[in-house]
Design goal:
The protein has no helices and eight strands. The chain has strands spanning 21-24, 33-35, 40-45, 51-55, 62-65, 70-75, 81-86, 94-99. The radius of gyration is 15 Å and the shape is globular. It binds copper (II) ion. Copper (II) ion (CU) binds next to loops.
């Protein structure tokens, strides 16, 4: 592939970004995302192992994502706040979801 045009680099973090996707890769949840209350968050798992996106506290959300390109969705909490989450299969995997 030859890139003949200059692509602007627009990967800056923006608090109100419409990004509602989490990509799991190398046993990590990637860059923390901020979503609107009640937003649908899509999770893609690029690892071969299965993962989950499970809220640390309460039952705010719990998505199971099959390995090798599996996807799942969950509904973000309706209450604004910062929600820590983890993978139930790999307790060392941690992420953060901000709702506002
Ligand atoms: Cu995992």
């Amino acid at each position: 592939m030859e890139s003949s045009s200059v692509m602007p680099s627009t990967t800056e973090a923006r608090p109100n970004s419409a990004t509602t996707a989490i990509t799991i890769k190398d046993f990590a949840f990637g860059t923390p995302i901020t979503v609107a209350p009640g937003a649908t968050v899509t999770v893609t798992n690029q690892d071969s192992a299965d993962h989950t996106v499970t809220a640390d506290q309460g039952q705010a959300f719990d998505a199971k994502v099959k390995g090798s390109g599996g996807t799942a969705t969950f509904t973000a909490p309706s209450r604004p706040g910062t929600y820590a989450f983890h993978c139930t299969h790999h307790p060392n995997m941690h992420g953060t979801l901000t709702v506002k």
